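Q: How do we represent a protein-ligand complex in a form that can be generated token by token?
A: Start from the inputs.
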Amino acid sequence: MDKLAIIGGRPLYGEIPISGAKNSALKVMAASLLTDETLTLTNVPRLADVEMLMRLLDQHGARSTFDGSTLTLHAKDIVSTEAPYDLVRKMRASFNVLGPLLAREGKAKVSLPGGCAIGARPVDLHLKALSALGAEIDLDAGYVIAAAPDGLKGAKVSLPFVSVGATEHTMLAAALAKGTTVIENAAREPEIVDLATCLNAMGAQVAGAGTSTIMVEGVEKLHSAEHRVLPDRIETGAYVMAVGATGGELTLTGADAHLLGAALKVLEEAGLEIETNGAGFRVRHHQERCRAVDIVTQPFPGFPTDLQAQFMALMATADGTSTIKETIFENRFMHAPELARMGAKISVDGQTATVRGVRRLKGAPVMATDLRASMSLVIAGLAAEGQTMVNRVYHLDRGFERLEEKLQNCGALIERVKD
Ligand code: UD1
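Then emit the structure tokens for the protein with uridine-diphosphate-N-acetylglucosamine bound:
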């Protein structure tokens, strides 16, 4: 298994191109199953998760070509409505093929998903939504077996709490359902808006994305379209935090500061200077340390759970004590003991971590436990004195495109060590 060796203590200076959002790319890719025509996606990041989903879609009949960052998918015929355990278990987002297969073919058999080990992460809301749209659903031997022989029908889907995945899954399925679907208490993440934009370009009728109520007027058929995936706000936020931890100045090209939601204000309160310009934005930090700021993770536009781990790395060397409350996932502090190995002073009590900032972290061998937690260890390593060895880098390969190269270009001493 590859590792990353980082010698910390160097400020970051230069330009980092921000990739297309992984979490959006995976959902718009699933939309390709809804049409027998071609879906062309641009600004798609080259990541292990994207390649894994390409393999799954291929096995359903969607042929793909990936040229630079342009991914073309064409599911002329659906050749299989079964998504096997081996392809779904590694990535939760694969589960989103269920709705499109059901909508187009009237049946699907999809393995229950896996993904990052950050809590139980059930799919009950997804299944309830599909049932509301008229699907008959059985669970058998780790598989969801779903059927809608007469097609899906529009319905009211009221989510008991905000779920990004369930909102997207309902939109995908409802696009080809008969009649109107209303999703209440819908997630408002920018990736939801991106999916709606893509579906509408394909001929769907989705309104209200970005608000808590989404209306989908089902249509009979979707057609070919081209869609540009929005910039990755989590990658963006992670590099902003890296500058906060190391000092320096970065231009993040292709990024959109507004996509950071509440995180933007938090980062400014922590002392980072952010200046937007047309093609992205510039972030600067020339103080010795950041200021401690308290955060609570919330659905968008609140502080994103996917930046919580990276923020903890930033707060580990901040001036003062911060509290970090995680409200989205119940087991998302696995990076805390790893950061503690580097000298961070963190105590965890239930869903709240208290971080007492220290002047300097010390490099150490650490273990990446999930995708975003891995990035927090990279940030800590860039800021720490001496060498940090981050083990289990495959987590990072799932979600951060050309990480070492982007950081090396800005002066970081970071190298992949092949095993
Ligand atoms: C997506 C993102 C993930 C991000 C998360 C929250 C992708 C590929 N992943 O994950 O990076 O951290 O949004 O912003 O886009 N839940 C249930 N039952 C369900 C569905 C969800 O109990 O059927 C719970 C989850 O366990 C979690 C909460 O709802 O506690 C929110 O999860 P959700 O918003 O659905 O996250 P994902 O879509 O899985």
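The chain has two domains: 3-19+231-417, 22-228. The pocket of uridine-diphosphate-N-acetylglucosamine is lined by residues 23, 26, 92-93, 119-126, 163-166, 305-306, 328-329 (CB under 6 Å).
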